[in-house]
Amino acid sequence: MKTYTCDAVVVGAGPAGSMAAKFCAKGGMDVILLEKKAEIGAPLRCAEGVSKSWLDEVGIKPEPAWIRGDMKGAIIKSTKGTTYQLDESKAGNEVGYVLERHLFDKALARDAAKAGAKIMMRTSCTGVIIEDGKLVGIKAKSMGEEIEIRAKVVVAADGYESQVARWAGMDTTLKLNDIDSCIQYRMCNLDVAPDYCEFIIGSCAPGGYIWIFPKGEGIANVGIGVMGTKCTGKADAKYYLDKWIAEDPRFKDAQILEIMGGFVSTLPGLDETTADNLVLVGDAARVIDPITGGGICHACRTGMYAGELLAELNKTGDFSKKALQPYEKRWRDRMEDKLFRNWMAKEKLATLDDDTIDEIIKLIKTSEITNVTVYNLLKAIKEKYPKVVEGFEDLI
Ligand SMILES: Cc1cc2nc3c(=O)[nH]c(=O)nc-3n(C[C@H](O)[C@H](O)[C@H](O)COP(=O)(O)OP(=O)(O)OC[C@H]3O[C@@H](n4cnc5c(N)ncnc54)[C@H](O)[C@@H]3O)c2cc1C
């Protein structure tokens, strides 16, 4: 069997894996980045919406090639039809881009390659190698051939379906309540705002929301995420999305160009994201915003944090769980409070009826919030409807 040897092997060339590989390589490590698919960033499993604020933080310069639309704002709508339009003047950096995700992911992998990472496409990790109780690498199938990659440290960047951490003995199981199931249509012939991302909340999407993210020329990503446990009878994500589309006149001439389904975890991160010689990043670490399902920025941040630390640790060769703790601390210090607050907010939102959601949107419309963030929205809600934020007031 062919055996490769390197300092770090990164499983999965999504945003988290490419960022981890880039920063490991930049720090002088010999890195192999594996991707099981035949194309990085495809097929699409994303609504492609991001805010702009974090890009600078992780050193990503916006490139026209992967920006499909520069949004002027967002529209938040209740199932009953109350609408709040949020402009850039109020939303600032929270307003963002609609990406071409297949180009964005490739650009990040390109940067990893530029830094010196070796990319192996059509190479699927199939297991881990444990010798004398120690993780020493991974097994993979590369273009049909069984191979081994021996490495000092393994980075699990294998996304929502992550198996690497489980193979290495960590419990990454999600409960049904911690999963939103999603379906999205790429639709054309739509009569929707070309530069506003729209979010529709309430009983039209139990425990989640419907999104309409414009892609230009009457085309948009139209999708839904729902909490399975909140759906009634046999209704699923597709049922609720089709129902909304059938009742919204803007879709009267719409046609579907592409369909995709997927899942997002709604946990505020795993309790442990490191083990001896193993680091979990991005969706594999369940570091994703529980309320929006936005995970690209979290994947990039955790990937960068892991890569920077691993390059530092490579000087001594100590990749023990203890040595990896600065990674746990860094991502938790940066993101955990917000993830936890949004997780609590999501749990509460899922219990509210349409009348209350309508009242909350009306309240936000009339309140004097100059900088609209989830935090400031929750602050306004706390004043008028303290019950809605009961249990996590101290985070607001
Ligand atoms: C329907 C939907 C809509 C979403 N919309 C948004 C959005 O609008 N904005 C946003 O910020 N986030 C969104 N997300 C979440 C976002 O897509 C993820 O958080 C993000 O992709 C996480 O990046 P990652 O690198 O951790 O994982 P991924 O992007 O999933 O990358 C993991 C990679 O690992 C590869 N892989 C898996 N197993 C193996 C293996 N055994 N061997 C080799 N390779 C492997 C996969 O092929 C994949 O390329 C959405 C998710 C879904 C499902």
Structure description:
The protein is an alpha/beta fold and 396 residues long. The chain has 9 helices and 18 strands. Strands 1, 2, 8, 9, 10, 11, 17 and 18 form an 8-stranded mixed sheet that branches. It has a 7-stranded mixed sheet with strand order 6-5-13-14-15-12-16. The chain is globular, with a radius of gyration of 21 Å. The N and C termini lie far apart (56 Å). The structure holds flavin-adenine dinucleotide (FAD). Flavin-adenine dinucleotide binds next to α1, β3, β9, β12 and β16.
Spans of at least 5 consecutive residues whose pLDDT stays below 50 are none
Please give the oligomerization state of what you see.
single chain
- The outline comes out as globular
Rg from Cα? 21 Å
Summed over residues and divided by their number, the pLDDT gives a mean of 93
Strand content: 25-35%
Q: CA-to-CA gap between the ends?
A: 56 Å
Number of continuous helical runs: 9
Q: Main β-sheet: number of strands, strand sense, barrel status? A: 8 strands, mixed
Mind telling me the CATH superfamily name of the largest domain? FAD/NAD(P)-binding domain
Tally of discrete structural domains: 3
Structural class: alpha/beta
Bound molecules: flavin-adenine dinucleotide
Order of helices and strands: EHEEEEEHEHEEEEHEEEEHEEEHHHH
Q: Helix and strand layout, with pairings?
A:
Layout: E1 2-11, H1 15-26, E2 31-34, E3 49-51, E4 67-70, E5 73-78, E6 83-87, H2 88-91, E7 96-99, H3 101-115, E8 118-120, E9 123-131, E10 134-142, E11 145-156, H4 164-167, E12 179-188, E13 196-201, E14 209-216, E15 219-227, H5 237-247, E16 255-265, E17 274-275, E18 278-280, H6 296-313, H7 325-349, H8 354-366, H9 374-384
Parallel strand pairs: 1-2, 1-11, 2-8, 5-13, 11-18
Antiparallel strand pairs: 3-7, 4-7, 5-6, 9-10, 10-11, 12-15, 12-16, 13-14, 14-15, 17-18
Helix pairs in contact: 1-3, 1-6, 6-7
The structure holds flavin-adenine dinucleotide.
Residues 11-17, 34-37, 45-50, 124-125, 157-160, 182, 184, 223, 262-264, 282-284, 288, 293-296, 299 line the site of flavin-adenine dinucleotide.
